[in-house]
Specification:
One of its GO terms (cellular component) is membrane. InterPro entries: Spore_GerAB. It is built from 16 helices and no strands. By secondary structure, the chain is mostly helical. α1 (12-23) packs across α14 (269-300), α4 packs across α16 (326-362) and α5 (83-115) packs across α15. The radius of gyration is 20 Å and the shape is globular. The relative contact order is 0.23.
Length: 368
């Protein structure tokens, strides 16, 4: 059972914010390019369909885990999947979260190195990011929730940066709608799914919500749909402006999209955006890292989460420096993407099936 305030609690609102924060991080920058390579001008449809599907998955996920409101991730997994399998899955999730954290750190290092500190070694940039991450996560999930609450609310105004460049866009670039074919649209879903990755963290953080209620499913779905509308709008606006052919040749198409219009006050809006977006990525890092530490804490039954925060600090630092170049980072990201499918799609489906088979008899408390 969870002892109140033992490892920090979060509110329902903070859980919705954390779902948004962990998804709206690194994925938005290259989303249009990765999906447009497959779905062409219909890339936005792939993103929309993917988001709707994920909102349904998270509804099933919360439906199941809400039947065990006083149990942690490993405890309700033990009831539904048997104890040995539960320990194996939770341990695997911990490894996945730590490895994902190191990759995001490396991505952020390259972004900071490209736009702000081109002469600074990656070792130094990574050290600063890891030190910041440890400072945020050492006090547990409560502090992480508050940090992300501030970050998400602070970056919401940047959503309006989508609109100025639309004056140069053309709807012709989005037509004919559906011309790429259903097969291409479906094939465009996997790369867009990777950009939505991270929502599976609800498996870890849900037991720590202090004010659980029947609206958790609805508002969690709305959080996913908010990201879906945001991503769909971003992809559609970029295709309308550049055309899908040009987007496939641009590494970070969203940053180039912002550079189209000259703003009267800020000369280099892409630099301004990238500076603030760095904090959004740090928010993503903090959630992913603390989730991994909580997973290992539940496996090894230690008293404090920060034990693993300090333990994994040198590990994520070293792992972030291992990829030789951006190509290697992309290759490792594909591996993480496949693991994300396992924890984000297959695991929730399996838990739902197991609950329907025998979970109802094992639910200790059905009061949300």
């Amino acid at each position: 059972m969870i002892s109140k305030f033992k490892d920090g609690e979060i509110t329902s609102f903070q859980s919705y914010i954390m779902i948004i924060s962990i998804m709206v991080g690194t994925g938005v920058l290259g989303l249009a390019r990765s999906v447009a390579e497959i779905a062409k001008q219909d890339a936005w449809i792939s993103v929309l369909v993917n988001g709707i599907g994920i909102s349904i998955i998270i509804a099933f996920t919360i439906f199941v885990i809400s039947k065990f409101p006083q149990l942690t991730f490993i405890q309700y997994m033990s009831l539904l999947l048997t104890k040995p399998l539960a320990y194996l899955v939770v341990f695997a999730y911990g490894i996945y979260a730590i490895f994902t954290t190191s990759l995001i750190i490396r991505f952020l290092c390259e972004m900071v190195g490209t736009w702000f500190l081109p002469r600074t070694p990656l070792t130094v940039i990574s050290f600063i990011i890891v030190a910041t991450l440890v400072y945020i996560t050492k006090d547990g999930l409560t502090f992480v929730g508050r940090f992300n609450e501030i970050i998400v609310l602070a970056i919401i105004p940047f959503i309006f940066l989508i609109f100025p460049s639309l004056s140069e866009a053309s709807l012709i670039n989005l037509k004919p709608i559906g011309d790429s074919g259903i097969h291409s649209i479906i094939k465009g879903i996997p790369p867009s799914f990777y950009a939505f990755g991270g929502y599976e963290v609800i498996l870890i953080i849900y037991p720590f919500i202090s004010n659980k209620n029947k609206m958790n499913i609805r508002y969690s779905m709305l959080a996913i749909l908010f990201v879906t509308v945001l991503y769909t709008s971003i992809v559609a606006s970029q295709i309308a402006l550049f055309g899908y052919q040009e987007i496939t040749e641009i590494l970070y198409s969203f940053i180039n999209y912002l550079d189209v219009i000259d703003f009267p006050i800020i000369e280099r809006i892409e630099i301004f955006f990238t500076f603030f977006w760095t904090f959004a990525v740090i928010g993503t890092l903090s959630i992913q890292f603390i989730a991994g530490c909580i997973a290992f804490q539940s496996v090894f039954k230690t008293k404090k989460t920060n034990t693993f925060v300090y333990l994994f600090t040198p590990i994520i630092y070293i792992l972030s420096l291992l990829p030789e170049n951006s190509v290697k980072v992309a290759e490792y990201s594909e591996i993480v993407g496949k693991a994300n499918v396992c924890f984000g799609i297959f695991l929730p489906i399996i838990l739902f099936i197991m609950y329907l088979i025998w979970g109802r008899k094992k639910a200790y408390d059905k009061t949300i």
